[in-house]
Structures are given as C-alpha cells and as structure tokens.
Amino acid sequence: MTEHETGRRPAPDGVRLRLATAADAEAVTRVFLDSRAAAMPYLPRIHSDEDTLAWMTHVVLPTSTAVWVAEQSGRAGQNREGGEDGEGGELLGFAALADGDELDHLYLRPDAVRRGIGSRLLAEVRGAVDGPIGLYVFQRNTAARAFYERHGFTAVAFDDGGRNEENEPDVLYRWAP
C-alpha cells in the first residue's frame, strides 16, 4: 500500500498528513475559523461557530472526495486545547477536495503558515487527481493568490462575488499537470 493509500505521510519536521475522520470536525472547524479571521478580516461573519461546525461535520467531511489534515506529532489523542483529536497531535491545517477535481478548502492555523505545510497539503491533493485542478480564491486574499501562483496555478476567470455567500469578488484558478 502506498503512503497516499494509507493516508499517512511522516516527515522529519514531525508534521504528518493523514485522511481526516469525523472525529476531526471540531479541530478542522477551529482551523477554518481562525485562519479566515487572521487572513481575511474583511469577510463578514455569516454563520455562527456552531453552524460552521455542523457544516463541517455534516457536509464537508462526509461529502468531499477527500479531506486531509496536517498535524504536529505529539501525545496521541491530544489536541492543543487538551481535548481529543481523531488521531492525535495538534491539527495545523487541512485540505478538502470536492467533485474529484476542485480544491474546495486549504486552510492553516495562523501560527502554521510559511512552514511548507500548505505546500505539502497541496501536493497531496495533486497526487489524488489525475488531471487539472480548479479552485476559487477571494480577489483580496493576495497571500493565497501568491501561494497558488507560485505553485503553477493560473487565474482563468474573475467574478463579482455573486457566486459566494460572502458576496466577495473571487478568482477561479486552474492547474494542469
């Protein structure tokens, strides 16, 4: 079985990637909320934390093609708040692939950026897709846009925000192997 098939990938920095489980919902939600607040403070808060957790639990985790998490090695079963995680260690970020070829989410804890974790998650997504990958990024999220452009994604369409619930103009990016 390959590392991709097992959902586990060790690394010398103590960060490993694995497939998410339902038990990761709270930690994934916290990463999502914290990352958005830090990187995109201009976005309106449309949903409560509880509604976001329900969406992660009942929509994102069970219906995505795959969701990977990056976690820092630590005492098995403990997250940074001292509670239980799906597999142990502190959850640092996650990536969700939807519809087989759309990177729907890639978020990192604010203290985990610029450590290569996002690049590793993106590589895992690329390894799971046989062809092109698409994704949307808010136009004002210049850090994310620069990240994807560094990784070979090209902006192919600009939208006025009418397609997302934040009504924030976004950009469609594509990458092809």
Structure description:
- This protein is α+β, with helices and mostly antiparallel strands.
- It has helices at residues 3-6, 25-39, 49-63, 117-128, 142-150; strands at residues 15-19, 66-72, 90-98, 102-108, 133-138, 154-159, 170-175.
- The strands form 2 sheets. A 4-stranded antiparallel β-sheet has the order 1-2-3-4, with helices on both faces. The protein has a 3-stranded antiparallel β-sheet with strand order 5-7-6, covered by helices on one side.
- Residues 1-6 and 75-87 have low confidence and may be disordered.
Gist?
By secondary structure, the chain is of the alpha+beta class. The chain has helices spanning 3-6, 25-39, 49-63, 117-128, 142-150; strands at residues 15-19, 66-72, 90-98, 102-108, 133-138, 154-159, 170-175.
